[in-house]
Amino acid sequence: MKIALIDDEPYSREEMKHLLGSYPWAEVVGEASSAEKGLEIILTKEPDVLFLDIEMPGMSGVDLAETLQNMKHKPEIVFATAYPDYALKAFRVEAVDYLLKPFEEDQLAQTMERLKSLVKVEPRENPSLGKLAVHDEDKIVFVKPEDILYIFREERETFICTKKKKYTCRLPIKELEAKLITYPFFRVHKSYLVQLPFVEELIPWGSGVYQLKVHGADEAIPVSRNYVKELRERLEL
Questions:
Q1: Which residues carry this modification: 4-aspartylphosphate (predicted)?
Q2: Global pTM?
Q3: Domains and their CATH numbers in the chain
């Protein structure tokens, strides 16, 4: 996924680049300090996504978004701004999301999930992606991604739960999420990644919180309030 950052504040661009570094399937291909320079990047680099500030010298981010509406292959737009007052205008130009500064990792994670469903992500070539190397006591074994029910992180250790057994893995969840991008996994909580075809029930747990029942798993999986809306859309509920 090719991303361009258009923001007149260098610190904000650096912060966003740092946060996006957690998503190996996303690449920042250009950045600009004004909408006018951003337009040049859009025409030359053809990014899939724009992270776009609103209040900038000269043309505003909203003006740029309106200019792009007639493009044949216009990029998806995420407004990233300190101003909450432009949300309605953002809706009118069909923005994917509206992130407020200072950026929050959980909110960005939801945005990236949304973008992943909208933009075709080409997996990077890697012959090892067919299976995952995991630990089974003192052995290293290889697990097929399609056999994984869910993945969770607990006390600095990652656990891979399959139809038959639970294994440990040294990789953090974000790296596993990137490796499994061509499979139907979804982040339901900062510590849980679930393979959606195995979901059997979405159970209300009070105050907008839910739990998931996964086929073949004994324990219920917590669903963070921040991920409920996107999860319901993915499950077509």
A1: 53
A2: 0.58
A3: 2-118 (3.40.50.2300), 127-234 (2.40.50.1020)
